[in-house]
Specification:
174 residues; Elongation Factor Tu (Ef-tu), domain 3; 45% strand; elongated
Length: 174
């Protein structure tokens, strides 16, 4: 059984495309195209289910038309419409640090570069604007938004799932 902590979201299924089991896939990360993954994971009735990719073609930088094995009719596609799409985190580990999707870092502990004290845990990413933000849950259960800017990231340890940050003085007090 696939567990939520083993995956991260890379997009969402859209509506059916045609009558032969194709579906629009809106993705935020094309890691499934850049790694050896032969499948994606969709959430169906609250359960994470792997689906093997038969073929796909890109429509734009953020959309692909995908055909999955054993999904051959418009009726079978309907169970996937609007489903979140995930990929196992292990596939991100195949990539160089500069190729890793920002969504991969959800669940990482963020540490202060000077004191190594815990700032908090990254619980989400606000990528609605050009300036992306880490949404971090502090140890006191409050939340803080921290710019996801590479000049603030001093070190990333994928094995320990930590990110060491060199933040400007006073940023956490805002």
């Amino acid at each position: 059984m696939i567990k939520q902590e083993e995956v991260y979201q890379i997009g969402r299924m859209g509506k059916a495309h045609g009558l032969k089991g194709e579906i629009n896939f809106q993705f935020t990360d094309d890691v499934w195209d850049r790694t050896d993954s032969d499948h994606i994971i969709c959430e169906v009735d609250g359960i994470l289910v792997p689906f093997f990719i038969e073929e796909y073609r890109f429509r734009s930088d953020t959309t692909a038309i995908m055909k999955l094995e054993d999904i051959d009719t418009i009726e079978s596609v309907q169970m996937l419409v609007n489903s979140p799409v995930y990929l196992e985190k292990k596939y991100q580990e195949e990539l160089d640090d500069d190729e890793v999707s920002i969504h991969y870092f959800i669940g990482f502990r963020m540490l202060d570069g000077d004191t190594h004290e815990e700032i908090g845990t990254i619980i989400d990413i606000d990528d609605n604007t050009d300036n992306w933000l880490f949404i971090v849950e502090r140890p006191d259960d409050s939340e803080v938004m921290i710019p996801a800017h590479e000049e603030f990231i001093a070190e990333i340890n994928q094995q320990e799932k930590t990110m060491i940050m060199d933040l400007p003085l006073g940023l956490l007090d805002l």
